[in-house]
Amino acid sequence: MATLSTQPLILAGEGWADYGLVDSGHGRKLERYGAYRFVRPEPQAMWSPRVSEGEWDAHGEFVPGSDEDGGGRWQFDKAVPRDGWDLAWNEVAFTAQCTPFRHLGFFPDMAPVWDWMRTMLAGRTDASTMNLFGYTGVGTLALSAHGPVTHVDASKKSVAQARENAALAGLQDRPVRWMIDDAAKFAAREVRREKRYDGIILDPPKFGRGPGGETWRLEENLPALLADCRRLLDADSRFLFLTVYAVRMSSLALAGLMDELFADLPGTIEHGDLAVREDAGKDGEGRLLPTAIFARWSNPG
């Protein structure tokens, strides 16, 4: 029986050569993406910036709209390649770009998750894994070092970008199955096919639509999707990692749902916050900026 740990964890991502959280505060954050710097909204940065915001030297800023549906626009003070520019995380290369959705084509706070998944699969080259809501494929390419990956996303544009990232990294020959599909429907079909996986990562949105007009609402649809994911795992599987952004929900709630569904498997269920650490300032260690909540099941074997 899986053991539920009620003590929350913090998975903190540190900056690397091509990314860093420079400063944060007053509901905004300043980040570096390679040679470019950007300011974006960040409601959880309720403290004051380390330096005056007037000294934030940025190439552009995303200005949110007046509604709560994620609208807004980019404003640029310096030239930025509109078609994107190349970045890398370890051996995985990918294109960063200022998207209409305020992010830049990948989620840097997922770096410690990618590290953790690879640790769980250490020494394996035959592990079968699945990335649901796989977006532009950085996590998929990280997993592909350990065996075949099924990458699922409803957006044709995102899957096309993921394939381009694979080619950019020289990893286009890795065993990846690229699927343009509704994640929940695909997982249900995999259950009917009696498939199994060694690991699953899923990053569902708060709200979304599938390629056939399917409507996704996190609070309503997550329990059924997670139940199907459980059916795709067994006692020899290694992990499931679930991240959730921008919802009024506790990580303990996610862990409670997982505890119910994974009761018959060995391993451990943990939960907590994803965070990114600021680049160290004059005062030493940088602050931690929370970005998402998570719950995970792990079974090292």
Automatic annotation (TrEMBL):
Keywords: Methyltransferase, S-adenosyl-L-methionine, Transferase
CDD domains xrefs: AdoMet_MTases (cd02440)
UniProt domain S-adenosylmethionine-dependent methyltransferase: residue ranges: 80-212
Domain of life: Bacteria
Keyword Methyltransferase: yes
Gene Ontology BP terms: methylation
GO MF annotations in UniProt: methyltransferase activity
SUPFAM superfamilies given in the database record: S-adenosyl-L-methionine-dependent methyltransferases
Pfam families membership: Methyltrans_SAM
Protein name in UniProt: Class I SAM-dependent rRNA methyltransferase
Organism of derivation: Novosphingobium silvae
Upper taxonomic lineage: Bacteria, Pseudomonadati, Pseudomonadota, Alphaproteobacteria, Sphingomonadales
